[in-house]
Amino acid sequence: MIAAFTRLDLSSWFPRTQTLLTLAFVAAVGVLLPVPGMAIAAAATVTSLMVSAPFLGDERGRLDTLYGVLPISRRTVVIGRALAVLTYYAAASLLATAVTVAVALVRGSDLSIGLLLIAHAAALAFVGLSMALQLPVFFRIGYSRGRLIAYAPVFVIAGAGWLLQETGGLSAVQDALAGVPVVTLASVSAAVGVAGIGVAIVTAVRMYRTREV
Amino acid sequence: MTEHVVKIADLNVRRPAFEIDGISLNLSRGSVVGFVGPNGAGKTTVIRTLLGLITPDSGDIEVLGHPAGAPEALARIGIVLDEPTAAPEWRVGSLGRHLAPFYPEWDERRFGQLLERLSVPRGQRVKQLSRGQGVKLSLAMALAQTPELLILDEPSSGLDPASRREIGDLIREFMVDPEHAVLFSTHITTDLDALADELIVIVGGRIEYHGALPDITEEFAMARGSGAVPTASVLGLQRSGAQWSALIRMVDSSEFGADVVVDAATIDDVVVHLAVEQKEVAA
Predict the structure, then answer these.
(1) pLDDT (tens digit per residue) in B28-58
(2) Beta bridge partners of B264
(3) Domain range holding B257?
(4) pLDDT one-digit tens code per residue, B131-149
(5) What is the distance in angstroms between the Cα of A16 and the nearest Cα belonging to chain B?
(6) Which of B62, B37, B16, B63 is closest to B206 using CA atoms?
(7) Chain B: nearest CA to A99, how far in angstroms?
(8) Count of domains observed in chain B
(9) Where are the transmembrane segments (chain A) (predicted)?
(10) Are residues B165 and B262 in the same domain?
(11) Same domain, yes or no: B198 and B245
């Protein structure tokens, strides 16, 4: 039933023009910005912003009522939707990787596997934390009342970056990370991402269980 | 198989905007139950509670032998709201593909027949449908699930008479099976005249009447007069200048004098006068 719900959920918001435009944006970043890995970062950023998209669709199409009366548990709805968001992320990541590799080949520039690995792991960490922050809120109070939370992960990352830059902490972090093997760094980042997704699902199930729709 | 499709005992729901106050009722198989009351009376709240969309503060609810909102019950309930619950981008003809995996008894052939009969174009997107087509689509979706219980929440508001008749015809066909039951909430009480066996009147979150539909004319009457307001047992009173009309119990009709006209009450009379009385009590 989870897979069936994921398919149903994706069919309600994935084919929309704005969803496809965000994928085009990921490709454009990969082509226009010369820094390798930027497209992968863009994939994570748009995924973070797209977490709210299905909840907006719920309210526009009264899908929250439809999902409430489907003969499935609310846990199935939460897991199915989390998988739908991750499917979008997988599509964006695949596109970003393809564009990154293609651009490197065309430009004749070096592209290390290590860079791709660390970029994807960091992106997964961001997406996981972003889902942990957003899914429980949207499942509890819906899009209309919770929409500002969609921007929170991007603001938190940007704010942390700015703070590190201003306090001179950025170089200290870079120095500290320079000594860590890429595989370790990637593993930790990926683990953070997976943990974030787990927290997102467990908390959202609790939030949605008693929500009145 | 249980005799009652719905059993509600002492249901209480208290929210800032609405209140359900100790409702108890049973709906039997083989019956079409009209559910009427003024706006804000609690009809939709009761229906949403039955479906598990609202959690009651207290009370017991059993739907088709399961707690409210249980997937086993929801798989056997067809729900028709005033708008289709479907993504605006979905095409009408593709709805079966989207919904069939969730309903073990989904009948795609029947869904197609209903769309054709109700003239809902299969190629249109849901967002392109008119209001009437949207309601018809909801009904086709609900009936294609092969439900045992059909719940309609004000589906006919704003529909033309021909469309309302089509809905009535489909309900009658659905009720050919004596195991089926219908709960029909509506403001257009004339839709119930030829359909409903029972009537529930809800006012201010309380059930004011629950009985056989034909009994309403035996139980209630309208007294109309002018001048002094009657002191006899009046259930609800409306004034218009010197004229007044009062809802009374038929057994009390002899208490009125010859200058008062007493005749049969309609469902609308009962709803309107009980609502007026409830407002005055609240004030």
Answers:
(1) 999 999 999 988 889 999 999 999 999 999 9
(2) B221
(3) 216-282
(4) 889 999 999 999 999 999 9
(5) 8
(6) B37
(7) 29
(8) 2
(9) 20-53, 82-105, 111-136, 148-164, 176-205
(10) no
(11) no
Give the chain B residue whose CA is nearest to the CA of A76: B71
B81 touches A: beta carbon within 8 Å: yes
Q: Which amino acid type is present at position A129?
A: L
Last residue in a domain, options B188, B212, B236? B212
Find the domain containing A107 and state its range.
2-209
Chain A partners of B85 at a C-beta cutoff of 8 Å? 61-63, 65-66, 69
Q: Check CB contact of A17 with chain B, cutoff 8 Å.
A: no
Count of beta carbons in the 10 Å neighbourhood of residue B17: 6
Residues in A touching B84 (Cβ below 8 Å)? 62
Confirm or reject contact between B229 and chain A (CB < 8 A): no
Contacts of A71 in chain B (CB under 8 A): 71-75, 102-103
Given a contact cutoff of 8 angstroms between Cβ atoms, the answer to whether B273 and B238 are in contact is yes
Q: State whether B109 and B233 are in the same domain.
A: no
Cα(B275)–Cα(B206) distance, rounded to whole angstroms? 11
C-alpha to C-alpha distance for B60 and B8, rounded to whole angstroms: 6
Chain A partners of B142 at a C-beta cutoff of 8 Å? none
Per-residue pLDDT of chain A (213 residues; tens, 9 = 90+): 999 999 999 998 887 788 889 999 999 999 998 788 899 999 999 999 999 999 998 888 889 899 999 999 999 999 999 999 999 999 999 999 999 999 988 888 888 888 899 999 999 999 999 999 999 999 999 999 999 999 999 898 889 888 988 888 888 888 888 888 889 999 999 999 999 999 999 999 999 998 888
Residue B90 and residue B110 in one domain:
yes
CB-based contact A51:A149 (threshold 8 Å): no
In this prediction, residue B283 carries a pLDDT of: 52
In tens, the pLDDT along B146-165 reads: 999 999 998 887 788 888 88
* Long-range pairs, A91-94, Cβ under 8 A, ≥24: A91/A23, A92/A22, A92/A23, A92/A26, A92/A43, A92/A44, A92/A46, A92/A47, A93/A40, A93/A43, A93/A44, A93/A120, A93/A123
- In this structure, the answer to whether residues B178 and B266 fall within a common structural domain is no
Q: Which two three-digit tokens encode residue A98?
A: 């393809």
CATH of the domain at B23: 3.40.50.300
Of B156, B177, B212, the residue at which a domain comes to its end is B212
